[in-house]
Specification:
heterodimer; A: about 400 residues; 15 helices; about 45% helix; B: about 130 residues; mainly alpha; about 0% strand; flat
Chain lengths: ~400, ~130
Amino acid sequence: MLEAASRNMTLSSSVKPSKASVGTNLEVTSEIGRALLRRSLSPYPYLKALIKRAAEVGEPNVASTPHQVVYTRGSMRLLRFPSPDRRYRTPILFVYSLINRYYILDFLPGKSLIEFMVSQGYDVYAIDWGTPGPAEQRMTWSDFLGGIIRSAVRWTLRASGSPDLTLYGYCMGGTMALAYATLYPEGIKNFVAQATPVDFHDGGIFAQWTRPERFNVDALVDAYGNVPTELMETGFSMMAPIQRVTKWLDVFRRIEDPEVVTTFLAMEHWASDNVPFPGEVYRQYIKDCYQENNFCNGRMKIGGERVDLGKIRCALLSVIADNDTIAPPKSSEALSRLVSSTDKETLRFPVGHIGLSASSKGPKLIWPKIAGWIDARSERLTRHRAPPGE
Amino acid sequence: MAVESTPRRLNRLARAFKFIGRVTDPAATTSGKLFHRLETGATALLDRLARNDTYLNLAGRMMEQTFLVQAESARSAETLLHAMRLPTATDLIEVRDQVRKVGDQVEALSLQLELVLEQLEASQKTKVHGG
């Protein structure tokens, strides 16, 4: 069933070439002018309009899976992606990172993890953190976990009519969701940790850059409050500054292929869609995770409570990208040793950090295995007893 | 039987991009091979720099000074505004924080009310069925 569904998903709906939508000379010029005024570091805003014009493609159709807003709190929205053919009572709640936007999970038609799960019959929910502003500046881990995620879990269970759910964390969202699961285990039936850093001693280049003797996080947060997007963008640029520019040459060589161009533009759109990082959360994240590695050693405290991964007993799936430079495999491997779950499994795939949710291997190789794991641990819906709201 | 489609004629801009791609393609041109060697060399150099302790410590110290100057500048501006009895950004943030906390309390109260209502409904249903 899973293979048939993935075969049926096509890529063609992500490409919408339209002469009317590729832009006039004036529009192209004004886009480049706006990028110059913003002094954008990324090549994307400068080249986007030109590439679209050359390849005769329209705006990439990101985040296109139909959804409703179930709940809002500050800048956060809880999105529901209802399944037209719901088969499972147990819903899935995605918790993405505070860095970049959630819709990497709903990338493009045919390349969307959320779309795939919806097609499998899951009632899918996702937290869209939105664009944090001054109101989020002083919010702490306790506010995010005990306030926002807890409300999201509550509303997911209420809207889906289920007593429990599968909590699915990705990247730093996985770290937050793990901390949440140790403090508020009620209602969590299964946990999926995708590319989730746990042991920050093996945190890769970010661990090197944020060492306390060279990175004063207090000075940064005291100066700016929320971490500015320019700083976040500079950090990511420093990881591969040459490739940031030369990867565009690959698109130039395949400019006649609308599928390749659209996928590339969609990825660049997401990568440049940075948001400020809430200051107090960032302060504790850097100190307790990267600098002191308290998270995996049970020394991190949230709201006065110790985060003890040994308290996690629910079924756990750890999904690791073998070529991950953001959450290196060793950093994620530690999770399996630290939890008390008896039902736990690790899946590894030969992709990078983002490849787990946006590569062409997703619907063919990666997502069917994850969905299969969740399937075996989810309550099925009996047709004659539809939950409320259906 | 498969129908062969005619390759799309590229516009001028696309041809220009194609040309740039070709001259930098190591598989297609000599200039591409040279470009690739330059790219590989520059990548290795910058990668070593990004992991060099001396460079990172220096960059970290410079960033710290920038942050401290920024923080001091903001504090001075706030002190001046407060002296003139004018509201500052920090004051607004504090107000927003209070409003957010009030919102959280309202939400918690409404949740408790809903729970009480649900329990009342459940007990009324029990009375109706039992009585």
